[in-house]
Amino acid sequence: MNRLIYRIDKTGNLKNLKLHEENLSFPKENEVTVEVKSIGLNFADIFAMLGLYSATPKTPFIPGLEYSGIVTQKGEKINDLNIGDRVMGLTRFGAYSNYLNIDSAYLIKLPPNWNFEEGSAFLVNGLTAYYALMELANIKRNKTVLIHSAVGGVGIYANRIAKMFNAFTIGTIGLPSKIEQAKKEGYDEVIVRGKDFKSQLKEKLNGRSLDIVLECIGGRIFKDSFALLAPQGRFITYGSANFNTKSVKLNYPKLIYNYLSRPKIDPLKMINTNRSVMGF
């Protein structure tokens, strides 16, 4: 059968994302074919298309890490899924298509009360938040957690997980227009990031120890957040929005400046203050 795909033949410019048609083979014995109804758009997709993501496949490649849809074909060893099942899943790129073949280990049935849009926007963000807090930060009850990009996909799920442990959560946002949304999500304190971020954070902590930081901005925000991390605190970095060019092609002078001015951490000081930095 034929399928439509969005493909990048050369990284560095989002305009290189073009629509193509190609043949799709019958699924292998452990695979199913999914008619894609919705895809999730993630920072990793943008960074991959710009050539800034370390896991970017060799070109040409099809972007897209998560999707939802309907099973239309299945391999001979598939017993737990049927044609017509509504599913959501992950793929190491390749979701920007109207049909895809995927190993059944990488998808699950869509909950009955979820629509396709909800299914395609859950797994990457939800699993990122879960892994950061549960596995790396090893969150315990009554901790203080700083969550950057508080109302982004990861931020929302991270706050909800942290609240299950009765955490005091401080969320940061880039625009005042997002304050109400952050408050609705239940953050105890909200900071609009600016030049006075460090002093704002000190004020919001109000004497509390900063135990966990989920960081995805980079640059000065990284540096100021780490400076206030308490002894035995855990600093989890999972992105760097500071490198986002905010345009369809790379801004090389900005990228070079941000790269050369990125924060440096002294290992000896880490020993003295007993603070951990982890990234994924």
Any key phrases for this structure?
13 strands; five-stranded antiparallel beta sheet; 9 helices; Quinone Oxidoreductase, Chain A, domain 1; 28% strand; Rossmann fold; 280 residues; six-stranded parallel beta sheet; alpha/beta; 2 domains
CATH topology of the largest domain: Rossmann fold
CATH architecture group name of the largest domain: 3-Layer(aba) Sandwich
The level 1 CATH classification of the largest domain is: Alpha Beta
Fraction of residues in β-strands: 25-35%
Q: What is the H level of CATH, i.e. the homologous superfamily of the largest domain? A: NAD(P)-binding Rossmann-like Domain
Number of separate helices = 9
Stretches with pLDDT under 50, minimum 5 residues: none
Count of all domains? 2
Structural class: alpha/beta
Helical fraction: 25-40%
Could you tell me how far the N terminus lies from the C terminus, measured between alpha carbons in angstroms? 37 Å
Strand order of the largest sheet: 10-9-8-11-12-13
| Average predicted local confidence, pLDDT | 93
Morphology: globular
Total strands: the figure is 13
Please provide the ordered H/E string of secondary-structure elements: EEEHEEEEHHEHEHEHEHEHHE
Main sheet properties: 6 strands, parallel
Plain-language structure description:
With 280 residues, the protein is α/β, with parallel strands linked by helices. It folds into two domains: 2-120, Medium-chain alcohol dehydrogenases, catalytic domain (Quinone Oxidoreductase, Chain A, domain 1), CATH 3.90.180; 124-279, NAD(P)-binding Rossmann-like Domain (Rossmann fold, 3-Layer(aba) Sandwich), CATH 3.40.50. It contains nine helices and 13 strands. It has helices at 43-50, 116-120, 123-136, 153-163, 179-184, 197-205, 219-227, 252-260, 267-273; strands spanning 2-8, 17-23, 31-39, 66-74, 86-90, 99-103, 107-109, 144-147, 168-173, 189-192, 210-215, 229-237, 276-279. It has a six-stranded parallel sheet, sandwiched between helices. Helix 7 (219-227) links the parallel strand 11 and strand 12 (229-237). Helix 3 (123-136) crosses helix 4 (153-163). The model has no long low-confidence stretch (mean pLDDT 93).
